[in-house]
Amino acid sequence: MNSSTKPAPGARGPAPHGMQDLTQGPIGKTLIIFALPVLGSNILQSLNGSANAIWVSHVLGEAALTATVNANNIFFLMLGAVFGMTMAANLLISQSVGGKDLAMVKRVVGSATTFFFILSLTVGVAGFLLTPSILRVMNTPPDATRDAITYLRVIFVAMPFMYFFSFVMMAQRGAGDSRTPFWFSVCATSMDVILNPMLITGFGPFPRLGIAGSATATLISQTVTLTVMLIHLYRSDSVLILKRQDWRLFWPEFAIIRTLVVKGFPMALQMLVISGAAVIMIRFVNAYGSQTAAGYGAAIQLWTYIQMPAMALGAAVSSMAAQNVGAGRMDRVSEVARKGVMIAALMTAIPVALIYLVEPWVLLLFLPAGSASIPIAIHINAFVLWGFIPFGMAFILNGIIRATGSVWPPLIGLLISMWFVRVPFAHYLEPHLGQDAVWWSFPLGSIMSLVLAAGYYRFGGWRKARLMAGIPRGAAPDTGMATPAVAEETEAVEEAAHVTIPAKAPAE
To answer: What string of pLDDT tens digits covers the 508 residues of the chain?
Structure first.
């Protein structure tokens, strides 16, 4: 490269296609703009789940709804097994984008793609084979067990496609693009919503599959949308796509895989801690019969919407914080945390208040009119809904802490709040408080999550953590598969893009 055209150190030129610089501009406005498409994707996914629940409950009955609730708890438990690794890949991509290291972005994408392909197949096969045993451990009601096995096994067949769909979505957000994943979420959800009733009821030329139709609709919609999304990214020349000259990067680098596992494992455990606690809680609920379980399942549908704003903001603050860490802008990271917590509290409180106002009518979407499960669901929400406000605030703080690579403290905090507060409270006080001990345990666990997250954010050493410390910088290791032209191109990209990450944030 001619020295006259070489960018000045630290210069911020236009971002390549599919990337957005989150290290500049107003923080609050950028957070909201980035979070809105993520929120839209979450809403669409939740609407999809709600539509499925509506069709299952109204066409197949309350026992079938109980089956999907039990099966979905297992599904989310298995999804948690890979979530941490996708989040680690997201953060690696974000920090590389923040440091303008485009070659590292492609290296992470190549190694992560191979890793997730193998992992998703392993989880899908294991889950399919172990489905009956898992449902027995959950104490699934006998009248719902057969449907739960049928539903869950189709979901496990879809698992590899769902895992890779999640990875590609997270990778795009790590690169600063939250809009493209949103539009493909629209496609996936629309297809699922259309196919769901047709495959359940056998409408027109479609076969009548019953509860398996609901899961099959998910399988088809995820697979087709993933294929179209990859084609779109390839044709738009996204930085996340590896073309023929980059195929050598699919050979996994040990340092990147090690980072995905070492940093992703604690984050995966966080999801497993949450999902595992949910499985234990539903065991408590199942002991009170199908009506209580159906009321709990309907309440969970509403809880999903309550959590969506904080989850969308969590994705936004993680990507923004990680990019600023990569650029050495720790001053902006602190401001992202402050504004993120404030916005999360407000955006969680608003839907909580709205649901309390319209709850009896909303529950009719998930339960038949006159169902004995409706007053049970209303009673549950009186205890649980408001507790999502502190949980949402904790979610933001933990996202900031993880963005630097400090992944164990959030896990320990969740472990304490879920397994040393929520589950023991429900277990030991149930003989005295009855079902109310189970419902009270939710907000108490959420409050403990916030206390622990805020304490570590204020006094912990997360600011000194380094996510990419073990990964060698510069060109990818030579596998002997690159042509001289490819090696020369890679060197030129790195010369133009590489920025040294300072240990401390520069003063403004």
So the answer is: 443 334 433 444 445 555 677 878 788 888 888 888 988 887 887 777 777 777 777 777 777 777 777 777 777 767 766 777 888 888 889 888 887 888 888 999 999 988 888 888 887 888 788 878 877 777 777 777 777 888 888 888 888 888 888 888 888 888 888 889 899 989 988 898 889 888 888 887 888 888 788 888 888 998 999 999 999 998 888 888 888 888 888 888 888 988 888 888 888 787 778 777 888 888 888 888 888 888 898 888 888 788 888 888 988 898 888 888 888 888 888 899 999 999 999 999 998 999 999 888 888 888 888 888 889 999 999 999 999 999 999 999 998 998 888 889 999 999 999 999 999 999 999 888 888 999 999 999 999 999 999 999 999 988 888 777 667 765 555 444 333 333 333 333 333 333 333 333 333 3
Are 119 and 290 in contact by the 8 Å Cβ rule? The answer is no
List strand residue ranges (DSSP E) for 204-295, in order. Answer: none
Quote the pTM value. Answer: 0.72
Q: Of 460, 491, 67, 501, nearest to 297 (Cα)?
A: 67
Tokens 């709040």 belong to residue: 417
Residue ranges covered by each domain of the chain: 27-497
Token pair listed for 269: 């455990």
**How far apart, in whole angstroms, are the C-alpha atoms of residue 428 and residue 420?**
12
Tokens (6 digits) for 257: 């895989």
Q: Are 282 and 66 in contact (CB under 8 A)?
A: no
Q: What is the helix (H) or strand (E) element at residue 137, kind and residue range? A: helix 102-137
Could you give the angle at the alpha carbon of 399 between the alpha carbons of 187 and 302, nearest 5°?
50
Amino acid at 355: I
Look at residue 339 and give its three-state secondary structure.
helix
- The answer to whether the beta carbons of residues 308 and 43 sit under 8 Å apart is yes
Indicate the DSSP class of residue 363.
Answer: G
Single-letter amino acid, residue 417: S
The residue count of the chain comes to: 508
Rounded Cα–Cα distance for residues 166 and 322 (Å): 19
Residue for token pair 């600063």: 176
Give the DSSP H or E segment for 11. Answer: none
Q: What tokens appear for 298 in the block?
A: 């309907």
Q: Tell me, what amino acid is at 477?
A: P
